[in-house]
Amino acid sequence: MLTIDFKRLDLREGERVLDLGCGRGRHTHALYWNDIPVHATGLDLSEADIMATADGFFDLPPPDASAHRSGTLTAGDAQSLPFADDSFDVVMCSEVLEHVDDPDAAMREITRITKPGGRVALSVPRYWPEWICWKLSHGYRNTPGGHVRIFKHDQLHAAARQTGLRKTSHHWAHALHSPYWWLQCAVWDIRDEHGLVNAYRRFLEWDLMKAPAVTRGLERFLNPVMGKSLVMYFVKPV
User: Fold this and answer.
1) What region does 172 belong to: left with phi over 0, alpha with psi -120 to 50, or beta?
2) Rounded CA gap, 59 and 110, in Å?
3) Domain ranges in the chain?
4) Which of 162, 167, 210, 220 has its CA 20 to 30 A from that of 235?
5) 79 forms bridges with which residues in the sheet?
6) pLDDT tens track of the chain, all 238 residues?
């Protein structure tokens, strides 16, 4: 399930791309197996997630051996990244900034390690669907490692602009996931055993695996209205 639209990043062969806060590797794996071969780096604060991402490389068939590509993994903190200035052509940071203690520090680090002319993609939970989750469940927003803030559109844009990044486009994603999270929050303490939650989860898994035209079209139609994630794209001026 990809939140970042790789087509908007204008990936070029041989570029260095960082998936900052890679989690269990959904974007890192997609970068490595992308048709355009790049040098993909995944970084996360959780060593367990890094190990899960590493395992994922062996669960999929090898990519085209004729194209030069690489995958690198490391643990690290978004607020103090272990990379030199101007290290990456592209930096992706998907569903991370809502977790960190100091998002402004993370934004400064993202800009610092991006090459002049490089591209940046940021995604966070969209304000109003996330606000409903917070209102429905105290446990949702107080889970260890959970969301500590909600970004409005202008707030995310301003945080990036203050570091010198220039916005190029934005979109929303995962509209069909918003009701799923509202449902979970409404029955938070029993969500794992709730029949309707489990049924909706199976529906989302089916949609992810099969990608039928009807649900893909419905989500594209609903994303501007109730997309769960806000995604913004930027460039670092030369």
Assistant:
1) beta
2) 30
3) 6-176+227-235
4) 220
5) none
6) 899 999 999 999 999 999 999 999 999 999 999 999 999 999 999 999 999 999 998 887 877 766 788 999 999 999 999 999 999 999 999 999 999 999 999 999 999 999 999 999 999 999 999 999 999 999 998 888 889 999 999 999 999 999 999 999 999 999 999 999 999 999 999 999 999 999 999 999 999 999 999 999 999 999 999 999 999 999 999 9
Q: What one-character DSSP code corresponds to residue 9?
A: G
Q: How far apart are CA 197 and CA 186, in angstroms?
A: 10
User: Cα–Cα–Cα angle for 66, 68, 73, nearest 5°?
Assistant: 130
- Look up residue 148 and give its two tokens: 């500590």
Do residues 134 and 150 lie in contact, with contact meaning Cβ atoms separated by under 8 Å? yes
* CATH T-level topology, domain 6-176+227-235: Rossmann fold (3.40.50)
Longest CA–CA span in the chain (Å) reads: 53
